[in-house]
Specification:
With about 160 residues, the chain is mainly alpha-helical. The protein contains 7 helices and 2 strands. The protein has a two-stranded antiparallel ribbon with strand order 1-2. β1 (about 85) and β2 form a beta hairpin. The longest helix is centred in the C-terminal third of the chain and has 25 residues, at about 100-125. It is globular, with a radius of gyration of 19 Å.
């Protein structure tokens, strides 16, 4: 069994992913800054626009975020009137998130900045490597790590 002294940060998948994510997020944030959005806000607006009016729970699931984190991230979008929280259409007790006209207009402007960031990323990292990276990351996202959340760390080993 591994001990704390055996731990090498460069061998940790989670640490490597988080470092890469922070690095890329900071890169995209620089492009989105003039539009007044951060990468996470852009992603939320973009996903919500594609999905249409939806609940926080459904959006959180689609974004692979926990509901509390998404709730904190939508507060500035709501405060700036980029999204609206309205009564649910099918269940009046529920709440739905909607992109406002102001949010859609800002998203359109920010999409140009995001496209520029995407083009620069691919110019630096390479188009084929970027495509392969996205495919690999989608595979990670689709992997079944769910049992870990249920407190069964060995459950995922059964499939390996």
């Amino acid at each position: 069994m591994a001990t704390a002294s055996d731990f090498r940060p460069e061998d940790c998948n989670c640490l490597s992913l988080r470092q890469a994510t922070r690095h890329v997020t900071q890169f995209y944030d620089r492009f989105l800054m003039p539009a007044g959005l951060r990468t996470t806000q852009f992603s939320i607006l973009s996903k919500l626009q594609r999905m249409g009016p939806t609940s926080i729970n459904a959006l959180a699931e689609a974004m692979v975020m926990d509901r509390t984190t998404l709730g904190r991230n939508i507060q500035p979008l709501d405060r700036e009137c980029l999204i609206a929280v309205r009564q649910g259409r099918t269940d009046r007790r529920s709440k739905e998130l909607h992109v406002t006209d102001k949010g859609a207009a800002l998203l359109e402007d920010a999409t140009k900045a995001r496209a520029e960031a995407q083009a620069r990323f691919e110019a630096i990292f390479g188009g084929e490597r970027s495509s392969n990276l996205r495919a690999l990351l989608r595979a990670v996202t689709a992997s079944e790590f769910g049992p870990m959340a249920e407190g069964r760390p060995d459950a995922t080993l059964e499939e390996g």
